[in-house]
Design brief:
The protein is α/β, with parallel strands linked by helices. The chain is built from 3 helices and 5 strands.
């Protein structure tokens, strides 16, 4: 590859050849660097780890069904009770471990006072997981 010529007209023309030797040298150097460093990146310590079962034994909390009908009567798991008796049962349930879930089912025509009293009794008993059960709306 000669860059000079004896032709005077071509002397002023730009050189349109690309010198590939430096590009190839750089690529070969990078290839050698990757070949040397690749095993260092995959180096790992071989260990025999102990095998253990990590399954959690979930204990399902008891479920208390508390229903309030249209007249304000309370039913503790289907058994009719007065407010005081229901509060005693809730207090007994509040000391069990794990804490049971309270599912409150109230008639849509019942006075809110009966629902609020029941929620207050459950709160005093220490029951924190309370769910309101309702029927889906008919379409």
């Amino acid at each position: 590859m000669a860059f000079s010529s004896f032709d005077a007209r071509r002397q002023a023309a730009p050189v349109s050849d690309i010198n590939m030797v430096p590009l190839i040298d750089v690529m070969l150097v990078l290839l050698v660097i990757f070949i040397v460093t690749a095993p260092l990146l995959t180096h790992a310590v071989k260990l025999e780890l102990p095998k253990a079962s990590a399954e959690v034994n979930p204990s399902q909390p008891d479920r208390i069904e508390l229903a309030i009908d249209a007249q304000g009567r309370r039913f503790f798991n289907g058994e009719p009770l007065t407010r005081e008796q229901a509060a005693e049962r809730l207090a007994q349930a509040g000391v069990r471990q794990p804490l049971p879930e309270l599912h409150l089912r109230a008639d849509h025509t019942v006075a809110y006072r009966a629902v609020a009293e029941t929620l207050a009794d459950a709160s005093r008993a220490g029951l924190t997981r309370i769910g309101f059960v309702s029927e889906p709306e008919a379409r």
